Structure formats: C-alpha cells, structure tokens
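A reminder before we start the practical. When you read a complex entry, don't treat the lines as separate problems. The point of joint prediction is that each chain is placed relative to the others, so the output describes one connected object in space. Small molecules and nucleic acid strands, if listed, are placed in the same frame. In the example below there are four entries. Take a minute to note the order of the lines before looking further.
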Amino acid sequence: MHKERATALRLKDVAEAAGVSIATASRSLSGAPGVSVPVAERVRAVATSLGYVANVHARSLAGGPSRSVGLVVHEIGDPYFSEIASGLLGVGAREGLTVQICHTGRDPERELEQLRMLVANRVGAIVIAGSGLVDPSLQAPAKAELQAFQRAGGRVAVIGRHHLGVDAVLPDNTGGAGSVAQHLLDLGHRRVAVATGSRGLTTVADRITGLEAAFTAAGLDFADVPLVEADFTRAGGKAAAEEILDRHPGVTAVLALNDDMAIGVLSALRARGISVPGQVSVTGFDDVAVAGDLAPSLTTVRLPMGEMGEQALLLALKEPGARPRRRPVGAELVVRDSTAPPPA
Amino acid sequence: MHKERATALRLKDVAEAAGVSIATASRSLSGAPGVSVPVAERVRAVATSLGYVANVHARSLAGGPSRSVGLVVHEIGDPYFSEIASGLLGVGAREGLTVQICHTGRDPERELEQLRMLVANRVGAIVIAGSGLVDPSLQAPAKAELQAFQRAGGRVAVIGRHHLGVDAVLPDNTGGAGSVAQHLLDLGHRRVAVATGSRGLTTVADRITGLEAAFTAAGLDFADVPLVEADFTRAGGKAAAEEILDRHPGVTAVLALNDDMAIGVLSALRARGISVPGQVSVTGFDDVAVAGDLAPSLTTVRLPMGEMGEQALLLALKEPGARPRRRPVGAELVVRDSTAPPPA
DNA sequence: GTGAAAGCGCTAACAC
DNA sequence: GTGTTAGCGCTTTCAC
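Here is the predicted structure of the whole assembly.
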C-alpha cells in the first residue's frame, strides 16, 4: 500500500534509551527469563514511555509465536455469523490476538482463496464457521490446504461442519430440528411444509434428518411433507412461502430451516393477510437476536452463536489432541408467539 | 501460538525448482519489470504447482507494500456494524487485502489498545466505524496514535465521526433526523418523545441537532420534547419506551435514534398492548436489514451501510490528499407501516 | 545476568 | 534480463 513509511520506533531505540543491548530489551519485553528484575522493569518502563509497539512481522519472522487468527464466514452481514464473530472477537481481544475475518459467500473457490490468504499471513489458527457441503469433492481442495496448514504447525477449528477431520464445535442441528417438529406435532399440526435452504449444505441436511426422525417417530410419512428449497435467506424464505401457499394451500404450519427464512415467511404471510399463528404457525432456527422482537415473536431453536464462536477459538488455541475434538452444543427449543394449534 | 512450525515452502524453493535466482523469482511473482515473459511465466507456473504462498511477514519486513487493513467497530454483532463490515470485506477481497476486525465496545481505552495492535501489525490502513465522542479529551490519545500512524505512512479513514482530522465518510445524520421529524410533524404529531442513546456520542448529538432544527422550523419549542436517554441498543429502547409511557402518557409518537432502539420500543409497546401506529407511531434510524420485516414494518432513515464500508476503504486506499477528504452520504427517509397520523 | 551475532523469508539496490 | 547481496526488526543460541 505504502512503501515510503517513515521510521517507526524499533527495539534498538528502546534498548539504547534504557542502556541495554537489544537482546536484553527483547527478553525484558517478552517476559523471558534471564534478566534481572530491576533491569527488566526499567526496560518496560522506557518502552511504555516511548510508546513502543513491537513489529509483529519482524517478531513472527524471527520465530516468535503467531498472535493472530483467521475467521472464515459465509457472510459477515448475516446475524448468524456476526454473532459468532462477536463471541470470537471477544476472546481474541482477551488473549491479545488479532483476528482476520474473511467472507466466502458460500463459494468453495473463494473459500479456498481466502484460506490461502490466511496461510500466507501465517496466522496461528483458522476458524471456519458455517455449513459445509454434503458433496465432499467440493471441499477436497480446502481440506488439503488445511491439512498442509496443520502439518506446518497451524491449528484449525470449525463450527457446524464435519467431514473436515479437525476440531469442531457442533450444534445439535438434528436434535433441534427434531424438537421443533415435535412441538408442531404436539400442537396438532399434520399439514406442515418445510422452507429449506440448499440441501447441499450439511446444516440443512442435518436439520432435515432431525425433522424426518420426529415425523417418523410420530408414525407419519415424511415423504408426504412438502420441502420447498430456496436461498437460505430472507428473500428465499419469502419465495418459499409463496410457493407453499400456492401449491399446498391446506398447510397449517411452515417450518423454516433458519430464522432468516422464517422472517421472509412471516413477511410473505403478512402480505397475503394470513394471520400467524391464527391460520398458519411459523418456526425458525438459530434464534438470532431479533427473533424475539418480531411480531409475532418467533418460535425457534436457540443456538448460542456467541458461545460457539468463543468455544471454537478456545479449541483452536489449545494444543492439538491425538484425534479431532468435538464440542457438541445444545439446541434448545424456544416457544414464542408464532406457533399455536392449527385452526379448528 | 506455535513455535515449532515445520518448514513451509519458501521463495528459495520455488527459485530452485524453476532454475532461477530468488531475485528473479521474486520479480516474477510480484509482476515487477525486468524479467522476460517466458521466465516469469515459468516461475509462476512452478509456484502454483508447488502451492507456494509468500510469507506476508517477510514481505512486509523487507519493505514490500502492506496488504492488510484494520477495521475498528464498536460491536460486530450489531447489524449496523456488520453491514458496514460486509461492504468493506467485499472490496477488501476484491483488492486482495486481508482485513483485521476489532471490537471496542464503545470504550475509549479498548479502542486505543486495539489501535496499537493494528499499528503493531503494520496494517497499511485503518478504518474506524462508529460514533465518536463529543468530548474531545476522551479521544485525544486515539487521535495522537492515529497521527503517528499517518506520519509513518499509514492511511486512516473514519465512518460517521468528525474531529479526527482524517478522511471521513459522513452520513447525513442531521438531515436524516430532520426528515423523520418532519414526517411526524407532517402527519400531525405534536406530542413526540425521543428515545436516544448517550448524548456523548457525536452521532446522537448530530441527530438531535437535526430534530431540533425541524421542530424549530415548524415553530415548535424543542425544549418541550422529552428526550429519554438510555443504551443505544434494543434493551435501551425498551427501557426508554417504558419511561416515556410512564412519564409522558399523552405521547403519540416515539422517535428512536436508531433502529435497534426502535425495535425495543416496538416490543415495549406491544407488551403493553398499545397498537402501532394506531395509538402511537414509532420511527427508527439506519434501516438495518430487518427493519422492513418487522410488524409493523419500521419507518426509518436509510443509511447505506454496506456502501459506507466500501467508500471508507476506498478512501483509505487512495493516496492521501493535502487535506482530509469528506464523502458525504445521503440519509433517505423510508416511510413504512409504523407511522400514521395521531389518533383523533 | 548480559551482550554479540546468526538468521527468519523476502524485496530492492546494485552488479554483471 | 538475471544474479548477488544487504538489510527489514526481531528472537534466540552461544559466549562471556
């Protein structure tokens, strides 16, 4: 960006000002042993008064530990990811780490590109948030890249995806989906439709598995439940809801596979003057911050996103285990005002 | 984090594999002149096939241009900031830049700390998003730090704050606030209350200035308008609304100074069974993604957050001007369903 | 307990 | 057009 950068303060300047060698200055500042306490304290005082901050690049190049981590998300503007990022940034700040965030837009190629960038930056750890893809071949290059990174001493943790062979924070998508489905069945709904994101996403696949289990357990045939696939977004939810209303007019409940879609569903129903939950019940998944403030407030499944972000970074900061660790995270049904028994 | 990192691929390895010197290899990869086309192409091919990625630290240390920027936000979980971040990350990816994001939690001390961290990381540019503080003394250390950074060749741009003497993207908070106030006055509201964040924030101060101007222009005394100060969050909005309802029961409109607070206001009104906009109208500010999907959908002022993030990074990437540049950004009133004439 | 000196991987003069 | 080499600022043996 800029080459002609004026001289910044160097360790040498601090050392001179304190009347010691740069070796001693280095040890003093990093808290390494082998320096007498008074000397170390003096050096630190001088450094502070001068406003010295060590050059991370030089430090890293000289073999110092990496103080930075990378976070890969699909889209930081999405509340699901921004809440994860928020939790992760919190522990990052606590640990004195810098966090590089990158977008992938659910594009495997861009994901790979961003991964390479993080590797080039020699981050100490990489956290990947967001659903993986059911088709393993699409992830093969990313997997290879991550393995090389790990062989070189880097640490990796993922949130909500499996098949990558690394430490993982795994929300209970299956169980959570089972519990919303059960909730609707308990209320008496039998004509339910599902608004789903791409089934190529493992998150979606897992949630559908949970739904199927609940329906089957209730003695119902899940094959009779219409699944309408659209973008895993608000707009997708709107589109899916419209298709559901047109093609399956008798439906009494729409089960959206994330809150974003559910918000779109609510909006489509409102536009058609269909009352929720009077005529149609609606459920979401994730419990983003706004879910409780919608009208009607959304019945959904809570995933502790902030905590998931924290856990993932904590996992990545730990020494690697012999085998990949798994941190299961509970998914808790939150019943609010968007669900009620079907109309009589 | 990890010191015992196995050997990664170095430029030397690529040079040897391609049968050239490291200087030639360096030039080939950076696209510098002085290498014959066939040689440069061969080197690049070898590098790609080997999966070589240059070590950013070494490159930066050797005086290469910095390929990373820092983004400072109050709270990444807040949609206002995550939408800004999303726009900024977009151009970052396009430009091949890595973006380090940090949280400050509206705490000047943490802000300073994070700024130091970015400086230590030798980012090429720093973008600061989020309101500044009215009291300049609280920002003096940050300002000094930024000036030192600029003297050393770093670039700085801010979003939505002045007084820092750097390039700035400035949303029209004053004009936007004027237009919502005008909208309510046009509808016939005369008993309006304001739910505001801390008046120590320049954003809040500017928006209040806009309100005052509109009221004054309409021949009303702004001193009669109750201003209830609370956290600039959903919870703050809820608290402010409750206080407004208790202390100023005759109010026909609540003007919240951001969408987050407005969402809290809506929720408090709903809890008390007060219809919006039948009994009370509500307005927000920012137009976060969810504003249009609330029930009732929120009348608010649109700020193009994503674009603001983009613009700020673009400013920061430009050569510095003789004087700080300003990119004013329009604030557009968006009338939706949460406002109506006051009850008769 | 402290200092001198050898790199870390790369870029940018400077030779050839 | 290509190679040689001197650093960038730091950590870390290795002497003292």
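Discuss with your neighbour: The mean pLDDT of chain B is 92. What might explain this?
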